[in-house]
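Renewal narrative, Specific Aim 1. Our central claim is that a sequence can be written position by position from structural information alone. The example that follows is taken directly from our test logs and has not been curated for this report. It begins with the structure tokens describing the chain, in the order in which they were read.
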């Protein structure tokens, strides 16, 4: 049995909670719908609102029972009403729809209607002005004031001129024919967060409003509309200016109108040929009949109609022939000049020092080709709308399998390299020479002082300096990282049988950013040393025939045993004499 000393405090607490509840709420719960209908069943019951309009207070029970609120009671919405109403002469407050429709009410509060109401502007549209009061129906119902066929009428209760203009427009006429795809008030101005578009930026009007329909391939095809109107606008001066932030450039509405949008064949249309001088003259003071003959929506493939279009067509073709012919001749001429000079420098070079043997050159070649393919296909997969993707035909299957095949080749050459450095004497010597040493730090410091002019003494470097060692071990690290993460992404189903999915997501992130790091390192570091360094430009020939000039070797690697002729670990390849033709590099 529960002790009284524990029960008494509980009873007191419950009594306090009941006593503390708002009187209005307790009274509202006790009011029955039938009590409300004693008065509100009168069809002649009216009141005058703050704007001076007569508002009917009649409630049609049949309509209420057919509405979306048919399960609500009167008191559940009008919770401020007490059982003393209407004798207390306290008017009912507007219903707070936010109790049930919080998100919609928040959007409405940020709309032009909600903000105006917050500023105290009487007559601003409220929820009931658009949705109705007791006979609220879903927008899909033909009887709803928000049905697409009735929206102009609903909004026109306040915006009369706009409603008349829309009714005469191509959009309004299409709506009248029952075509739901035709834009209505809420399609352009949004639904609860109604936005005023007057004064909006040209880009917003064209990109966020008009393009919603006119960039749709489905709608353009269905209603036989020109398919390129949005594209050609943004390629025009007006469109480009809008994209780059101009607030004065003409947008779609500047020429076609706002609500009363009419076809160009209609004499009332702002883009009718007889009205173009006036329309264009709003921005271009002094516009003439000749000025307005210019075409706005003109693609690069279509220069327009009439004699001007034909002349434009021929000028375009003549210039294309002239450009390709002239620039093609210049390019071919300079390529031949460049090739002969490269060949001459190759023949004149004393390429007597072996830097890379045949096996190393083949490994380097396969590595370079697979890396380039991986970079191109990888970024094409990441950015399917890029020029890299279009270069590959925008075919995802081609991009993905090219990337995978190149990845397998890269891993294969990496595996062979492991075999090479363990099974071959020159391979073991290669790794030994590439191992980081204490001297590398000293060389780095000495070279920093030399390059900045703090010292006149250039460091004396052996077979491989810190630059080559950084590159080699970066390739080793990158191959491992890219290989492991790439295989995880490729076989994600198998990986997620043992590991959580987020592991694959992290692998994808690592794969992407490691690719950026690797490509930038190749472009900034490797390409400088093997291409753009003035001492080797246009190419360090070691990747072609394995050899470098004695002068370069003595300058860059004076401590290399091969330079002094004391190297007995690296197999030598015979130097072929340069007997090639003047236009062909020796050994090619």
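The sequence written for that structure reads:
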């Amino acid at each position: 049995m529960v002790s009284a000393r524990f029960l008494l405090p509980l009873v007191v607490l419950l009594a306090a909670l009941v006593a503390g509840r708002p009187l209005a709420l307790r009274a509202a719960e006790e009011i029955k719908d039938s009590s409300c209908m004693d008065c509100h069943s009168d069809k002649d019951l009216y009141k005058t609102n703050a704007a001076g309009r007569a508002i009917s207070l009649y409630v049609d029970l049949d309509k209420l029972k057919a509405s979306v609120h048919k399960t609500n009671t009167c008191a559940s919405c009008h919770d401020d009403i007490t059982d003393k109403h209407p004798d207390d002469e306290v008017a009912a407050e507007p219903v707070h729809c936010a109790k049930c429709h919080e998100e919609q009410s928040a959007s409405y509060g940020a709309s032009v209607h909600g903000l105006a109401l917050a500023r105290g502007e009487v007559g601003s549209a409220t929820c009931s002005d658009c949705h109705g009061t007791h006979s609220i129906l879903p927008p899909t119902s033909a009887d709803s004031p928000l049905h697409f066929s009735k929206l102009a009428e609903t909004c026109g209760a306040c915006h009369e001129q706009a409603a008349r203009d829309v009714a005469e427009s191509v959009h309004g006429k299409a709506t009248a024919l029952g075509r739901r795809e035709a834009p209505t008030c809420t399609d352009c101005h949004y639904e609860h967060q109604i936005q005023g578009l007057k004064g909006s930026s040209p880009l917003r009007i064209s990109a966020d409003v008009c393009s919603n329909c006119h960039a749709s391939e489905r709608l353009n095809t269905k209603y036989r509309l020109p398919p390129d109107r949005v594209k050609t606008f943004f390629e025009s001066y007006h469109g480009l200016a809008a994209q780059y932030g101009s607030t004065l450039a003409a947008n779609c509405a500047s020429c076609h109108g706002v609500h009363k949008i009419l076809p160009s064949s209609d004499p009332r249309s702002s883009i009718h040929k007889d009205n173009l001088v006036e329309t264009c003259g709003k921005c271009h003071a002094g516009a003439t009949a000749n000025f307005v003959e210019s075409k706005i929506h003109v693609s690069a493939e279509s220069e327009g109609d009439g004699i001007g279009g034909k002349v434009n067509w021929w000028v375009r073709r003549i210039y294309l022939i002239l450009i390709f012919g002239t620039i093609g001749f210049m390019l071919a001429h300079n390529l031949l000049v460049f090739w002969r000079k490269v060949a001459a420098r190759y023949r004149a070079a004393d390429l007597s020092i072996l830097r890379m043997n045949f096996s190393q050159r083949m490994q380097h070649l396969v590595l370079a080709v697979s890396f380039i393919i991986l970079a191109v296909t990888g970024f094409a997969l990441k950015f399917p709308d890029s020029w890299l993707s279009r270069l590959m035909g925008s075919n995802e299957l081609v991009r993905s399998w090219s990337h995978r095949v190149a990845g397998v080749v890269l891993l294969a050459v990496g595996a062979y390299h492991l075999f090479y450095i363990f099974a071959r004497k020159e391979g073991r010597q290669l790794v030994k020479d590439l191992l980081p040493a204490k001297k590398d730090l000293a060389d780095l410091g000495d070279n920093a002082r030399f390059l900045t002019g703090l010292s006149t003494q250039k460091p004396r470097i052996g077979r491989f300096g810190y630059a080559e060692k950084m590159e080699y071990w970066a390739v080793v690290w990158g191959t491992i990282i890219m290989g492991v993460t790439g295989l995880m992404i490729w076989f994600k189903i198998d990986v997620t049988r043992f590991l959580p999915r987020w592991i694959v997501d992290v692998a994808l992130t690592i794969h992407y950013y490691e690719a950026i790091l690797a490509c930038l390192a190749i472009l900034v570091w490797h390409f400088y040393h093997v291409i753009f360094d003035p001492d080797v430009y246009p190419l360090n020939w070691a990747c072609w025939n394995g050899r470098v000039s004695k002068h370069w070797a003595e300058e860059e690697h004076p401590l290399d045993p091969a330079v002094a002729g004391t190297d007995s670990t690296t197999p030598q390849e015979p130097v072929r004499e340069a007997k090639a033709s003047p236009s062909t590099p020796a050994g090619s």
